[in-house]
Amino acid sequence: MDTVDQQDLPEQAAGAEAQPRAAAGSVAASCNTATVKYRNTILALRHGIDSLYMSYPGELDPAMEERLRGLKAIAQKPGQHEQAGAQLQTAGHILEVRDKGAPMFPYVLADKSYWIKVSSSKAGKLPLAYAQISSNYPSAVAPEAADADLRAVVRTLARVIDEPTVSRVDLFVDFISEIPIEAWGEESWVTKATGKHLYFEDGQVSGCVIGQGGPISARLYNKTLEIKKSKKFYLQDLWAQQGWFPGDTVWRVEFELKRPILAQCGIVTLPRLLESLQNLWRYATDDWLRLCLPSADSNRSRWPLHPLWDAVRRIPWGGEASPLLDRYSSRRAPAEAWFFTQQLRIVTAYMAVVGIPTFEEASRCLASRTQSFHEGRCFEFIGMPFEQLVSEKVAIKARQYNTRLNGAETTNADAVEREPGED
Questions:
Q1: Which whole number is the average pLDDT over 262-283?
Q2: pTM of the model
C-alpha cells in the first residue's frame, strides 16, 4: 500500500499551520488567474472537489430504524407500484429507500445529492451513516454548504451524532490543451503506483487509470466524451464561462484520496481538508505521480517534467472562483427541456404518419387516441381502470425522481428548477 512520508508532503499537509483561505466556496472551482497564467500550455476551466465521502459517528434512533425497516420492506415488494411508497421525507429532501442495503449497512437512502448508507442501532463500532456527496452538488454549492445540508439530513436519523470525519475526497481539474494527449506512452508516467490501465474508444486513447483500488489513484480521461454518456451537459455552461467553445476537447485529471492517505496527512474533519487542498494536490502531482518527457537517463526520477503536467500541478487551490450552477435540485428528474424535446419528436412523427397539418391539432388527437388505446387494454390485460394505471405510473416516477411524497396531497421538495438528467 502507498504510504506518505512526512518529508514528502508540503508543510501544510504535514501538520504546519495553514495559510489563510480565500472566501468560502473558492476551492470548489477554477480561478481566472489560472486561465491566464497557463494559456500557452493549458486552459484551466474548473477545479475542485468532485465527490466527498463523510462518515458520521452516532447512534440510530430506534423509532427511525423501525420506520426504515418498514420502508425497506415496501421497496422489496414485487410490483413497482407497490414499491412507490418506499420514500423518506426529511430535512427538505425526499429520499428513495432502496430495497437492498450495503455491506454492514442494512439501509440505503438516495437522491441526486446524496447516497447514504445507514447502520443498525446495534451496529456497535460502525458509524451511524456513511454518505457520499455526489459530484452534482459541489457544482452548485461550496463544500461547507453541502456538508451543512447533509448534517441536517443525518440528524433526523439519529439519537446521537458526533462530529463527522472525511473518509474520501476526489479532486479534479478540467482543462483544454493543444498538446496531443493521446500520444503519451505508458512510460511517460512516473509514479509510486504499480497498476496502469489505458482505455480506448473509436481507436483513440480515451483515458487512463493509475493505481486503481489503492489508497490513492488517478484518472485522466476525455471529459467531453464522458458527458455524452453521463448527460452532465450543465458542465458545458460552466466551461463556457471560462473560455470553452463547442468543439473544444476537455480533459479531466482526477485524484481519489482515501482515508489512509488523509489520515497520514492529519486530515480528519472537513475544515482541515479544505485548508489542505493545495498541499494534497502538490503531493499527488509532485511526489506520487508525474508526467515526464522520457530521456536516455536510466533513472526515471530525473526525467524532465512534461510542461502540461507542470501547468496542472501549479493550479492554485484558492483565489477567485469560477461560477457555480445558479439552479440546482436534489430531484433526479429530467429537465423540462427533455420533455419538450420528446414531445416535439413524437408529435411531429405522428403528424407525418396520419397527415394532421398543425401541431396543436395533432397533440390533442394523439392524447385522445393514447387514452382510448390504453383504456381498451386496461381491463382486458391489466384489470384496472385507466386512471388507476396512470396514477400508479406517476407514483413510480415520483419515487424514482424524488419529486413528491407518494400519498401526500402536496410536495415539499426542495426546488422547482431542475438540471439536465436521465429518464
A1: 93
A2: 0.78
